[in-house]
Every structure is written in C-alpha cells, then in structure tokens.
Design brief:
InterPro entries: NA-bd_OB-fold, NfeD2_TM. With 180 residues, this protein is α+β, with helices and mostly antiparallel strands. It is built from three helices and seven strands.
C-alpha cells in the first residue's frame, strides 16, 4: 500500500511541475465526442475534471497516505479512506479556484465570438454579377475584410452597405442592407 501512495505522490508532483514549467492547454476531460481538448468552454462552464484538480487530488492522496503510514497509523482501510477524502477535498478546492478565479477571467477565443451571420459591413470592392467582391466590417473592435458574393448574383456597387447571410468555404454570401 505504501508503494501506491509514493507512486501517486511523485507522479502527481512530477506532472504538476512539468505542466507548470512547460504548460498544457488546460485539458478538460468530459463526455463529448471531442474527448479531451483545451479551452472547452462551449459547454457552459469549466469541467470539474480539469488537469490541475486531478493532479492536486492525486498528489495529496499520495502524500497524505504516505504520511499516515509513516506516523504509525495501523489501519490500512482508515489510511486509505482518509487519503481518498484528502485527495478529493484538495481536488474540489482546486476546482473552486479554477472555476471562481481562473476561468472567470479567461477571455479565450470562442467560436461564437466570430460568428459572421448578421454582421454588417460596406463593400470596398464591388460585386459584378456572379463574381466576388470584398467587404470591410468591424469585429471585436478590429476592422477586417472578407471576400463576398451576392445572394442572388446581382451586382453591387462599391460603398453599398451589406449584411452577411452565411459563410461557405471562406466566402460570405451577402445581401444589401436596407435601413428602414
């Protein structure tokens, strides 16, 4: 039993140090088809099974189990139960730290931040018939441009205000924006 505690402690500690020095893309393990991926915040909140929480729990489980063995506690079952409780408690504390402090201030890019349907802009290169033009628009405070084509193949002059209907293969389909 002592070997299990020592291995858990050193594996948890070693992985924690590796992640601290070399970084990891904040693995969150949950049941989507995507498996483990970084910054998976699209599911409504941080995962309780994030890397930091799991490693903290593993390290504390191993450390507490080892210390209890060394101080002379004789009941193997009691040592195991206390070590499990300590590991789960520390994992929960790290999850709370992650959810309340780190995740709350994480401004990672989300796909929804870059949804272009409904985006307003102005043509900088006219659209001639079924051809393509270019529009400029502002997204998150930055002026950007994108290739566009008209919805029904009609021509549109430079300077026309347009709205993006959808995206296909990096080209936006637009229609003229009429202010009422």
């Amino acid at each position: 039993m002592m070997t299990v505690f020592v291995v858990c402690f050193f594996v948890g500690l070693a992985l924690t140090l590796l992640i601290a020095f070399f970084g990891v893309d904040s693995l969150e393990l949950h049941g989507d088809a995507g498996g483990a991926h970084g910054h998976g915040h699209g599911h409504g909140g941080p995962s309780m099974f994030n890397t930091s929480s799991l490693l903290a729990g593993l390290t504390v489980f191993g450390g507490v189990g080892y210390v209890l063995n060394k101080v002379g506690m004789t009941s193997g079952l009691l040592i195991l139960l206390v070590a499990i409780a300590a590991g789960l408690g520390m994992a929960w504390l790290f999850f709370l730290l992650y959810a309340k402090v780190i995740y709350k201030h994480d401004d990672s890019m989300k796909a929804s931040d870059f949804e272009l349907s409904g985006q307003l802009g102005k043509l900088t290169v006219p659209i001639v018939g079924d051809g393509m033009g270019e529009m400029v628009y502002v997204l998150q405070g930055t002026k950007r441009s994108i290739s566009v084509r008209s919805e029904n193949g009609e021509s549109m002059a430079k300077g026309t205000k347009v709205v993006i209907l959808n995206m296909s293969k990096g080209v936006a389909t637009v229609t003229e924006f009429n202010e009422y």
